[in-house]
Design brief:
By secondary structure, this protein is an alpha+beta fold. 25% of the residues lie in helices and 27% in strands. The chain contains eleven helices and 17 strands. The protein has helices at residues 51-56, 95-107, 114-131, 137-148, 154-160, 219-224, 229-233, 254-258, 287-295, 360-369, 378-381; strands at 20-27, 30-37, 40-43, 66-70, 86-91, 165-170, 181-184, 191-192, 195-201, 207-215, 217-218, 239-247, 261-267, 273-279, 304-307, 332-337, 341-349. The protein has a ten-stranded mixed sheet with strand order 4-3-2-1-12-10-9-15-5-6. Strands 7-17-16-13-14 form a five-stranded mixed sheet, with no helix packed on it. A two-stranded antiparallel sheet has the order 8-11. Strand 1 and strand 2 form a beta hairpin. Helix 2 (95-107) runs antiparallel to helix 3 and helix 2 (95-107) runs antiparallel to helix 5 (154-160). The radius of gyration is 21 Å and the shape is globular.
Length: 382
């Protein structure tokens, strides 16, 4: 577990002095949850040694923590802001992303075949899919029309059908934070970042805040078969979160998530530059509906993080005309929105990224060695 290569005060929202935030830092003794209130950082590890227990204890008096000072004066490296939470993700929540997934499926993961398929699908499906509410009678009628035209797909099923796609993106404790390397499988030749807002949900099923995320996607693997989703989505260092969790309050609410414009910039080592925007106003399913579906027949006693999907689908050519975009080692990926800050990662292969070695056993051993769990901490955790 390597911390990010920049300090805590980098890339936080411009209004960091007025909000409340939760995050994790790497101290010499190990990872520690922090609470930032009105610009002051508090180490909460002595009373809530994990982010998941800290989230469940909100609203928590900052006076129970150890004051570390003003955020802009600290020199503490960041980790991913979640620890024991499950990391879930929703896919195909925007009409454009649905079309792109159908293209992947029809092209069988071949980027060269995608251009002609894209043109035909956008002409026949683009407008109609944007106009219907998922699960509605109108959506059912569109489904029958697309089946008749031979255009139906499993991706359109989750785009306009009653059931959202909800999958597990990454194992507990495996996510990387801002400033850390992000991994692409070494055998993937067609892939892209997915800039998203991620809701943080407590153990009671309540959305309590949000952060930024990169749900790295391998278009060639998933395009070959939807059964390869696990290989396309869950690899070493393939899930980034950060920089901090912004907690909902009177000034930052779920409506800010619904209205957010998420910006993406990719800067390649060869001078290539790609910019894009994902507008949450165009999402097909409300964020809280996605939370509801994630919880419908499952419990999360440590809470969960939920990627909400992306509108962004990179089609800008990088090398050869018509082959679209794919990552290169050395790409710098920046995902930003004013209320949540900026998440920055540099692309390497998953084999080259630092191996994930700090799992649940190591984490519990570290907390026990620091006296943060066990009999001496029972009162604090009661």
């Amino acid at each position: 577990m390597m911390p990010g290569d920049f300090c805590l005060s980098d890339d936080v929202p411009p209004d960091w002095r007025t909000g409340r935030f939760v995050g994790r830092i790497m101290q010499p003794t190990g990872p520690s949850p922090i609470l930032i209130d009105r610009g002051v950082v508090y180490d909460m590890s002595a009373v809530r040694p994990t982010v998941s227990t800290l989230i469940d204890a909100l609203p928590l008096d900052v006076g129970t923590g150890h004051t570390l000072g003003d955020l802009d004066k600290l020199d503490l490296p960041l980790l991913s802001p979640v620890d024991l939470q499950c990391v879930k993700a929703c896919g195909v929540t925007f009409a454009l992303s649905a079309i792109e997934r159908v293209i992947e499926e029809r092209a069988r993961g071949d980027s060269a075949a995608a251009l002609g398929i894209r043109t035909r699908l956008e002409a026949q499906v683009g407008g109609s899919i944007r106009a219907v509410v998922p699960g509605s009678p109108e959506a059912a009628a569109l489904k029958q029309a697309l089946i008749a035209d031979g255009l139906w797909s499993q991706y359109l099923e989750v785009a306009i059908g009653p059931d959202a796609e909800v999958f597990t993106k990454a194992p507990v404790l495996s996510t990387v934070g801002s400033g850390m390397q992000i991994g692409i499988r070494s055998d993937s030749t067609w892939n892209n970042p997915e800039p998203e807002i991620v809701l943080i949900v407590d153990s009671a099923g309540q959305a309590v805040g949000a952060t930024l995320g990169n749900d790295v996607n391998l278009r060639d693997f998933e395009g070959r078969s939807a059964l390869l989703l696990g290989k396309a989505k869950d690899n070493n260092a393939s899930c980034a979160l950060g920089p901090l969790i912004r907690l909902f309050d009177e000034d930052f609410t779920i409506d800010d998530v619904r209205a957010a414009e998420v910006e993406l910039v990719i800067e390649g080592p060869e001078g290539y530059r790609l910019e894009g925007v994902s507008s949450m106003a165009q999402i097909s399913r409300d964020p809280l509906e996605l939370v509801r579906q994630a919880l419908s027949e499952h419990q999360y006693p440590d809470g969960f993080a939920l990627f909400l999907g992306t509108l962004f689908a990179p089609v800008q050519d990088r090398d050869e005309p018509g082959r679209g975009f794919t990552h290169k080692v050395g790409d710098r990926v920046s995902i930003a929105t004013p209320r949540l800050g900026r998440l920055v990662n540099r692309v390497v292969t998953s084999k080259e990224a630092p191996p994930w070695t700090f799992g649940l056993g190591a984490f519990m051993a570290n907390l026990a060695a620091r006296g943060l769990i066990g009999h001496e901490a029972e009162d604090a955790l009661a």
